[in-house]
Amino acid sequence: MNDLTTTAPDPxxxxxxxxxxxxxxxxxxxxxxxSDGDERxxxxxxxxRRCSPLARHIARCYCGRGENYDDLYRVAYLGLIDxxxxxxxxxxxxxxxxxxxxIMGQTRRYLHxxxxxxxxxxxxxxxxxxxxxxxxxxxxxxxxxPTASEIAAELGVDIGEVTQAMIATRxxxxxxxxxxxxxxx
Length: 185
Prior knowledge:
Strand content: under 5%
Distance between the termini: 65 Å
Radius of gyration: 27 Å
Structural class: mainly alpha
């Protein structure tokens, strides 16, 4: 038995087995209608409504990665809208084969963008690991809090990298006792 037969189907799909039937035909009709007509808007809205369980299913697949389901569903639904609007029946084959990778790609890009903003480059991580001991040594030697340029000179790196490492790891904003450090540039 493969994974496809052991997973529970979407409850909306089970309730309406014809949910995705005739989507390809309707998309062909949609492609032939004027872009500003009421009939086109109604047909597009109906297609989006009928395919929204697909976006919900894909959003559920990406839950558990630190993101709220509602946010994931919104992103997946935007992917569905893009898929409906960019689908060309003659070129793209069946809609579901076109839409699933498009929606998944939109969701992955969203998650990747969120992860990238949290990630600190390795070079800055290496500098950040050396910040505390260096700051402590300079503080003892100078009898005051060292400036960013003094820290950079001690580490043998650019002042910009020290500043970025401090910001990325928030080491430059608070002392160990919780009080705010004064910007000492």
